[in-house]
Specification:
506 residues, alpha+beta, Beta-Lactamase, Helix Hairpins, Heat Shock Protein 90, six-stranded mixed sheet, five-stranded antiparallel sheet, 11 helices, binds adenosine-5'-diphosphate
């Protein structure tokens, strides 16, 4: 899902595009209507001016029209045109001007009209005759241009002139709009892009304090830093209130987590002594003769359950103390090779009983800084799990390798494997796949072994990963920072937080 920052930028961009488009459309429409008004006015002005010129000539008593061929005189074939004097004056008019008599004959065509091709001239004359005197300006499409025509029929009486029609070329006025459109088309995307960048930067700045809060809360919520609090500055804004609220919540969490840990630690601690006494009593009772078989079976069961309970209490105490940070992990060089060989030998013995082949294909010299008993516990947990969860006839491979990036201990088995949906949970406390079945069986652990193994790996600055496939087997790999002749690197043994282990399917 996109971040709020990206979504804000997107929303801003959409708004910006819509605004620019709306503004552009309105401006364009306004400009077009202004242009139409300007053209209409110009056409009417041309027609009015021509009428005024004709009127002025008529007022002086001079003739307005004459026959084009003096020999024809006033016969019906004579073609009437405006007098040369009037023609000279009319020639000064720009645009398309047609002067017509009452019979619809053309008395004068302006220079622009004469430049049109013959068809266009005929079409224009026809339209000029047909146009109603009261009609508003009227657009006309010719072969290669469009004109806006206006008519004026208020010519003073006593002349042959009945109407003047003037036209202006629609393309003649203000070539600006094309330029404006081009620049708008180029500039608009630039403006939108710039505003998007601006919005992204502004949103980033606005959300930076939120990012800081998220990082701080993440650091605090690892379960061991609940004593830390978020900084509350005096800005008095929403973020300050959020920090205050989060601090209150963290304080409440700290109290309840502390109480829970103390309870677990105290209860486990208190249970240790009675369990030890109970175990000693059962063992003494078992060794006291004479015993009936039923009594022996009952005592054997009691001893087994007491051992299990003692193991559980031990594990709980380990984890409770680890949570409270009360477990000191010794930091001294530990040679892992002999330790792993010991674990391997135990695995061979356990494997023999369980009908498994246990081998150690790779074992390299490696030294880590740490706590030998805890590291042994970690290796044993993994090996014992492999034995527990691998059916007869299976194989277990234990290996230890030392590379530049650290030391790797791994246990691979061909056992029952772990379903992909279960894999993310295996390091959780008290989590077991198929709880019901494993409780009664010899596999019946408590689901704490891997949680403890994970804690030990992390307390050594390392990590534990699991790869598995149901029915095919599993590989558990522990990665620890090494100290060796080759690296000589200083290793920090600070627990690396409770970040989750890596789990993948094979
Ligand atoms: P448990 O005491 O139940 O073994 P763990 O914490 O050691 O507890 O293991 C948790 C669960 O992870 C086990 O119940 C089992 O379902 C699964 N698991 C651990 N190791 C293996 C393995 N090698 N093969 C298959 N499943 C395993």
């Amino acid at each position: 899902m996109a971040s709020i920052r990206a979504r804000l930028t997107g929303a801003y961009a959409i708004t910006m595009v819509a605004t620019v488009a709306a503004l552009g459309t309105v401006l364009y429409a306004a400009q077009q209507s202004d242009r139409a008004r300007q053209l209409t006015r110009q056409a009417h002005e041309d027609a009015d001016l021509a009428v005024r010129i004709v009127g002025r000539v008529a007022a002086t008593g001079e003739p307005v029209t004459a026959t084009s061929d003096p020999l024809l005189g006033s016969s019906s074939e004579a073609i009437h045109v405006v007098t040369p004097a009037l023609r000279n004056v009319l020639e000064g008019l720009p645009d398309y001007v047609l002067v017509l008599d009452s019979g619809g004959r053309t008395l004068y065509n302006s220079f622009a009209v004469r430049q049109l091709d013959a068809d266009d001239q005929v079409q224009l004359s026809r339209l000029a005759i047909a146009m109603s005197a009261s009609a508003p300006a009227h657009p006309v499409r010719l072969s290669d241009r469009e004109l806006l025509l206006a008519v004026n029929a208020t010519v003073p009486g006593g002349t042959a002139v009945a109407r003047v029609v003037a036209g202006v070329d629609l393309a003649s006025v203000d070539p600006g709009p094309t330029d404006l459109r081009t620049s708008a088309l180029v500039l608009a995307p630039l403006v939108v892009l710039l505003s998007m960048v601006g919005a992204y930067v502004i949103a980033g700045r606005a959300f930076r304090p939120v990012d800081i809060i998220i990082n701080e809360v993440q650091a605090i919520s690892d379960g061991r830093s609940l004593h830390r609090r978020l900084a509350v500055d005096g800005a008095g804004d929403e973020l300050m209130r959020l920090n205050q609220t989060l601090n209150e919540m963290i304080a409440r969490l700290e109290t309840s987590f502390g109480a829970l840990r103390r309870f677990t630690a105290d209860a486990s601690h208190e249970l240790k002594t009675p369990l030890t006494v109970l175990r000693a009593d059962v063992e003494r009772a078992m060794s006291a003769p004479p015993q009936s078989t039923e009594q022996m079976i009952a005592l054997e069961e009691a001893l087994q359950e007491t051992r299990r309970m003692a193991d559980l209490v031990d594990s709980l105490l380990t984890l409770a103390r680890a949570d409270e940070g009360r477990f000191d992990v010794v930091r001294e060089p530990v040679a892992l090779e002999p330790l792993v060989r010991e674990v391997f030998e135990s695995a061979v013995i356990l494997g023999e009983d369980a009908g498994l082949i246990v081998s150690m294909p790779v074992v390299e010299a490696a030294t880590v800084l740490g706590d030998a008993p805890r590291l042994r516990q970690l290796c044993m947990n993994l090996v014992m799990n492999a034995v527990k969860y691998t059916p007869r006839g299976g194989r277990i491979d234990v290996s230890l390798s030392h590379r530049l990036d650290g030391v790797t201990f791994s246990v691979r088995d061909t056992g029952v494997g772990i379903a992909a949906t279960d894999l993310p949970h295996i390091f959780e406390r008290f989590w077991r796949a198929d709880r019901v079945r494993s409780r009664g069986s010899e596999r019946g652990g408590f689901g704490l072994g891997l949680a403890i193994s994970q804690w030990i790996a992390q307390a050594h600055g390392g990590s534990i990963t699991a790869t598995s496939r149901l029915g095919r087997g599993s590989i558990f790999t522990v990665h620890l920072p090494g100290v060796g002749e080759g690296t000589g690197a200083a290793v920090e043994l600070v627990p690396s937080g409770m970040s989750g282990p890596t789990v993948t399917g094979i």
